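Researcher:
Attend to token order:
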Amino acid sequence: MIRHIPNLITAARLVLAIVFFALLSAYQYKGRGDPMLLNVALATYTVALFSDFLDGYLARKWKVQSVFGRIVDPFVDKVLVLGSFVFFAGKNFIIPDPAMDDRHVVKTITGIAPGIVVILLARELLVTTLRAVTESQGGNFGAAWSGKLKMVCQSVTILVILLYVNSLHSLEEQGFEPAARYFRNFCIAVTVAVTVFSGLLYLRRGRTIYESTTAAS
């Protein structure tokens, strides 16, 4: 029974991701949906984030790594992270841009623009393609440290954004909103930079493996 616990935690995280997205769908900044929905979404995401650490830790501690875990765990991680950024760039977090006179000019309260989502998705598609091509030729294309760093940055940034939006009213009242916004934007910028850097490292790694495989054949 113990050997199945990490996989059960991974499966539970997928359920939490679905609940998280349902909460974000029902919520709208200064619109429909109770603001409490975002508080529940924050708690749900925090539990999901902790479960990501827990299932890997238990699998290593009990030496029960499985094919299911190797496939489903990164899949759930990508669904949770990329799905979060897609929602953050969507209509539920759009507000008028106070810097523009035209009220039809909008921005997101999360600081996430569609272009950022495109960059994150492009990196994942690139790495998935490189992995498929490399391993089809007998090469090893396992996870690298840059990929793990990218995942940490993205996960932390999502948490920072949720905390920022949840606490926005209090931040404005206490005069901390500009500093909090700058920190949020800093986290987003670091995440984008690390994501691009990670993609380039994987691209170089894929090229090296391809050239060595070609030379050997």
